[in-house]
Amino acid sequence: xxxxxxxxxxxxxxxxxxxxxxxRKAAAIEIMPRWRRxxxxxxxxxxxxxxxVTDADRKAExxxxxxxxxxxxxxxxVGEEAVHANPASYGATGGxxxxxxxxxxxxxxxxxxxxAGFCTLVALAxxxxxxxxxxxxxxxxxLATAQRGRGAHLDGERLFAGVPEPGRDLRVxxxxxxxxxxxEKHALLGLRADGVAPRPCGSAGLEYLAVARGESxxxxxxxxxxxxxxxxxxxVEEAGGAHLTLAGxxxxxxxxxxxxxxxxxxxxxARRVVGLLSGGASGA
Length: 284
Known about the structure:
By secondary structure, this protein is an alpha+beta fold. It has 8 helices and 14 strands. Strands 3-4-5-6-7-8-9 form a 7-stranded mixed β-sheet, with helices on both faces. It has a 5-stranded mixed β-sheet with strand order 11-10-12-14-13, with helices on both faces. A hairpin with a 2-residue loop joins strand 1 (43-48) and strand 2. Helix 5 (182-188) crosses helix 8. The longest helix is centred in the N-terminal third of the chain and has 27 residues, at 5-31. The radius of gyration is 18 Å and the shape is globular. The mean pLDDT is 93.
């Protein structure tokens, strides 16, 4: 069992490239051969027609679960599909063991439609602290990485989120209406304000990458699932951005957050978005 973040840092210095290789191989073997080739029996619904899972999701997660656990003995894996089968396994996100947080295909609806806007998300955390992340868009062959204290990179080039351009509407990707309750819709209505241009999000992982690149100013999301957020939150942080919940606190991957929450290019924008969300929530 690994006991210290310093030891994990040593692991990352030696094996970050092995993690990248495992992610690329999972995509090459289990995801891309099924892209635009899915048969009807390879797509299922989970909670409803907007919550899809495919054979690519299941098989890529199984591949990554085995590969990542082998790379870091004593670690555990929390994957979207495994948690769907056993919700209690989510508790490992707040445990003492190093935890890999995996979304094998983030943007499954886009994947099923044959679009390129999906990615594989992997993050490594320890005792609630995000330490490293990988965001891989296999249809575009683009890889974004982050390590705590070491910056964020896209295909090896350093990312800087920067700040929104003065006088321009804030570009904010929000939870898709298909996935929001009436209360959450009320909170998100706070973004229907002068100087803000909200739009429904696509793949959460790619929306975080857009913030880290300065292509989008913020995201505003109303759900907690760590596999959707962990990789992107660290990516935005290490690019100079910030994240806040409705309570004005950083997002916690283990849960218990006041929702909705935001991740933004800089701290001032995060505070502005949370203020607007608070106004919407109070009007519910």
